[in-house]
Design brief:
By secondary structure, the chain is an alpha/beta fold. The chain has helices spanning 21-34, 47-54, 106-116, 135-149, 162-175, 180-183, 203-206, 216-227, 261-273, 298-315; strands spanning 14-17, 63-70, 73-80, 87-92, 119-123, 154-160, 185-191, 250-255, 278-283. α3 (106-116) packs across α10 and α4 (135-149) packs across α5.
Length: 316
């Protein structure tokens, strides 16, 4: 199971976190529930059950939610008590470009808000297949500009799964700019990002059995609906193929039992080669979306703590 990481676990930019006994017990129970449905979430019919899953994330304490529009994009604010002024996080939700909503992900984003003491905005970017590439990326850029126009002088970007894809795409875009808006960016954190829409990574094979959620045919169908004939190797769609020079500091978290493992490994390796301040945190025994088990898994709590420390440092 560690074959993909053999060349990376000793690298100074990568940390392999051990699988605790408590988490081992919890993951056995979780796998028994989810594995019978592996690969079955497909098409727009999966939107309601996917949102229902995300609604189960434990609600953080002391966070107030408010629907709003930023940059013309609808979404939800997650505001912690005594939020620091002029600072904001934009969290971009997952869902394979076809599913997910700001409302369903509000508790996950709320945990980021609570631990950083910074308000988080969750954009409801347009979904495929109704709105294929590049609609989602356009919404994310508009939302970021909206935050700076509202007076937020320091903005961090976070994202999970394809939200990580869109977050990295925004960071790549801002790295080519030198205006005041781009200078508001302080860094980014992504969780299990989808960085290669060609789905060519070896971990699609080496982690095919270990991953309890996704199959390659399932992901390929969802990606096709998003790309709508567009080239999967276009850097605008797949951050792995982008020029990462000048990218803001990033942190990447991924589970060791994910078919998307190599999407993170290769992205961080490329970022380091481009001189980016980047780090990869790999969590033994963890699966896709493990951050959503905050309060129930040690790995989730520790990943959230590392995220808080990094973002707090960047905002400072």
């Amino acid at each position: 199971m560690k074959a993909v990481l053999e060349n990376h676990i000793t690298a100074p930019w990568s940390v392999l976190h051990p699988f605790t006994k408590e988490d081992q017990v919890a993951m056995v129970a979780m796998r028994a529930i989810v594995e019978p449905n592996k690969g079955k979430l497909q098409g727009t019919a999966a939107r309601a059950p996917f949102d229902a899953i995300m609604e189960r994330v434990t609600e953080p304490v002391g966070v107030v939610y408010e629907a709003d529009h930023v940059g013309g994009v609808p979404g939800w604010w997650c505001r912690p008590k005594e939020a620091r002024p002029h600072q904001a996080v934009m969290h971009i939700h997952g869902g394979w470009f076809n599913w997910g909503s700001a409302q369903a992900f509000r508790h996950l984003a709320g945990h980021i808000a609570a631990c950083t003491r910074v308000a988080v905005f969750l954009p409801d970017y347009r979904l495929a297949p109704e709105h294929p590439f590049p609609a989602a990326a356009e919404d994310i850029r508009a939302c970021y500009l909206g935050l700076t126009e509202q007076g937020f002088s320091k903005v961090a970007i976070t994202g999970d799964s394809v939200g990580g894809n869109l977050a990295l795409g925004l960071l790549v875009h801002l790295a080519t700019k030198s205006d005041a808006d781009s200078k508001a960016l302080v860094g980014g954190v992504v969780f299990s990002p989808v960085t290669d829409l060609s789905l060519s990574a070896e971990s699609w094979s080496t982690r095919a059995v270990a991953d309890p959620f996704f199959t390659q045919p399932q992901a390929a169908g969802l990606v096709r609906a998003y790309l709508d004939g567009h080239d999967s190797a276009d850097p605008l769609a797949s951050p792995l193929y982008a020029d990462l020079n000048g990218l803001a500091p990033i942190r990447v978290h991924v589970g060791n039992d994910e078919v998307l493992l190599d999407d993170s490994v290769r992205l961080v390796e490329s970022a380091i080669a481009a001189g980016v301040d980047a780090r990869l945190d790999v969590w033994e025994g963890m699966v896709h979306g493990f951050l959503g088990s905050v309060g129930r898994l040690t790995a989730s709590d520790e990943a959230l703590k590392l995220t808080s420390e990094f973002l707090t440092d960047r905002f400072a």
